[in-house]
Design a protein that fits this description.
With 111 residues, this protein is an all-alpha fold. The protein has six helices and no strands. The chain folds into two domains: 37 residues, no CATH class; 74 residues, AhpD-like, CATH 1.20.1290.10. Helix 1 crosses helix 2, helix 3 packs antiparallel against helix 4 and helix 4 crosses helix 6. InterPro entries: AhpD-like, CMD-like.
């Protein structure tokens, strides 16, 4: 399920609040795609994180990292996805993804 508009980065949140019907349709499309096949749970979240990394979308990486942590996926599993990006996307892109994941995981570690 897509994040609630108040939990989105500012740009996406503005679109969701200004155009709620667009946001609702977008969220429904995401849900429908997630339910279209047999992949589910942690595997689905890790695939979505990998796609966000491949798209070089910092906001999506942050979002999928937050949701993965809430679903019980470990920081080490998330970081491995970034490391797996290195041979395909290149060292700089994999490291960039790792730092985006750490943006979120380091906040989760603080009291």
């Amino acid at each position: 399920m897509a994040e609630a508009p108040e939990n989105l980065p500012s740009g996406a949140s503005r679109v969701a609040q200004t155009y709620p019907a667009v946001w609702t349709a977008f969220a429904a499309l995401g849900q429908t795609c997630a339910e279209a096949g047999p992949i589910e749970g942690h595997t689905l979240r890790l695939v979505k994180l990998a796609l966000a990394i491949g798209a070089l979308s910092e906001g999506a990486v942050h979002s999928h990292t937050r949701r993965a942590l809430a679903e019980g996926i470990s920081k080490d599993e998330l970081k491995q996805v970034a490391l797996l990006a290195i041979p395909t996307l290149g060292f700089p892109q994999g490291v960039k993804a790792l730092t985006w994941i750490e943006d979120v995981t380091s906040r989760e570690s603080k009291p």
